[in-house]
């Protein structure tokens, strides 16, 4: 898959599933397949936390999930692991503030891969853009139990601040988001929402995804009118 332009990337960010095996109540392959059927637009493999797979099992799960994404033309992003991204020829990588800077990642991955960077302030956003980030993950918007080392909850204020400072790079909100609290994030100016437990942790993954898909599609359609 070739690297998307900014318009395509905004479309991909609309409903972004982030997950690994520890986030799932069902086999990860089944969860991802159901989520794709329900309407996710982008997928990030994030295998972290208590009980996370390592070694060959980690690689095999990533490879299996990537194959499902390829079959359905969903971009496959790797969280934080540049060696895995290279080994799998992933569509991109997402890193946090404590990880390798985007310019160093770009030097290794080349120009045709997506790079997402988590940012929690205007200064961090500007640095990420200068380093070559393609999009920014902003959060945690709401309290979350999916990330043990999450930053302080910030609501939508960082998204608003970025818009007020004329920062127009694609943005996705993340952290504690579900169907009942997603709309303020889109209203603030994010191009989409990234979720973990709101999809991966649900008993009926397809139904949960469809609800989020309908909500985000409806909101963005109304914004264009």
Q: Could you please describe the fold and organization of this structure?
A:
With 225 residues, this protein is of the alpha/beta class. It has one domain (6-224): Alpha-Beta Barrel (TIM Barrel). Helices cover 44% and strands 16% of the residues. The chain has helices at residues 6-12, 28-38, 55-71, 82-88, 102-109, 122-131, 157-164, 183-188, 197-200, 205-224; strands at residues 15-19, 42-45, 76-79, 92-95, 114-119, 135-138, 171-174, 192-195. The protein has an eight-stranded parallel β-barrel with strand order 1-2-3-4-5-6-7-8, surrounded by seven helices. Helix 3 (55-71) links the parallel strand 2 and strand 3 (76-79). The longest helix has 20 residues, at 205-224. The relative contact order is 0.17.
Features:
alpha/beta, 225 residues, Thiamine-phosphate synthase, globular, TIM Barrel
Characterize this entry briefly.
Helix content is 44%, strand content 16%. By secondary structure, the chain is an alpha/beta fold.
């Amino acid at each position: 898959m070739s690297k998307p332009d900014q318009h395509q990337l905004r479309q991909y960010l609309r409903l972004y599933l982030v997950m690994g095996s520890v986030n799932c109540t069902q086999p990860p392959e089944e969860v991802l397949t159901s989520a794709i059927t329900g309407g996710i637009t982008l997928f990030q493999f994030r295998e972290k936390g208590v009980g996370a797979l390592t070694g060959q099992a980690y690689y095999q799960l990533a490879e299996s999930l990537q194959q499902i994404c390829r079959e359905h033309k969903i971009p496959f992003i790797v969280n934080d692991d540049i060696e895995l991204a290279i080994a799998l020829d992933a569509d991109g990588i997402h890193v946090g503030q404590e990880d390798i800077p985007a310019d160093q990642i770009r030097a290794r991955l080349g120009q045709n891969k997506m790079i997402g960077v988590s940012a929690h302030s205007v200064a961090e956003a500007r640095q990420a853009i200068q380093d070559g980030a393609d999009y920014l993950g902003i959060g945690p918007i709401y309290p979350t139990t999916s990330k043990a080392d999450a930053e302080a909850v910030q609501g939508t204020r960082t998204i608003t601040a970025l818009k007020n400072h004329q920062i127009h790079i694609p943005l996705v909100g993340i952290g504690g988001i579900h169907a009942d609290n997603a709309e303020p994030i889109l209203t603030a100016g994010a191009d989409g929402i990234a979720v973990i437990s709101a999809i991966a942790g649900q008993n009926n993954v397809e139904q949960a995804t469809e609800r989020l898909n309908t909500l985000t599609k409806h909101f963005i359609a109304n914004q264009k009118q």
